[in-house]
Amino acid sequence: MSSKRRIHARWRSLAAVLGLALVIGAAPAHAQLQGPLLGQDFAPTSDRGRNTSVLERERPEYEAPGIREGGFILYPRLSLGTGYSNNVYGVTNNKTDDVFFAVDPSLSVQSDWGTHALSFLAGGRFRRFASETPKNENGFNVSGAGRLDIDRATAFDAGAGIEKLYEQRSSGSFPINALASVPFYRTNVFGRLTRQGGRVRGALGIDYNRLSFGDVAAIGGGTLSQ
Known about the structure:
Layout: E1 17-25, E2 67-69, E3 72-85, E4 98-111, E5 117-129, E6 137-149, E7 154-167, E8 182-197, E9 200-213, E10 216-217, E11 223-224
Antiparallel strand pairs: 1-3, 2-3, 3-4, 4-5, 5-6, 6-7, 7-8, 8-9, 10-11
């Protein structure tokens, strides 16, 4: 199967899952481990906050203060969970149930400078099944971004990131004979020059994205090359 095949944006779970999660850490309230790698919205915007709902408003007083190290603030986070699936492989016949455990650590580092900015994010997404070990997952994401303030109205942003994810059987492009979830890597590099003049904002940017699929165990033995 070609590495250019498309992945459906939404993956529907075919298994009934019952889970219990525990979150520990000092991550800011808006941080998400499995969100987009980096923002690449190049469209000029003018937001004066008129359409912001009460629930969407930022509340810095409720955000964790983080751990200060020099000119940087660290936000560690650890999410632990366990769950049960009555159809681990998402098949129609010969269903298999199992218990799984989830561990999602992450560390976000953000600069706290008067001008310019740097940020880094590293995290993992690990899944361990009690019996059905072919379904184990070792996902991760690493990214970094920076902003150079050229003057009061002009800035240049750049960044790069890579993450390892898993395509589930519920995806429309999932290989029919694959036994477990298909690992794939998503790489992103971007650069953007913006200039703000009064209520007008202009942006010029370039963005590169690449998907690379890994091999996966096949039903009945062997390996499927992607």
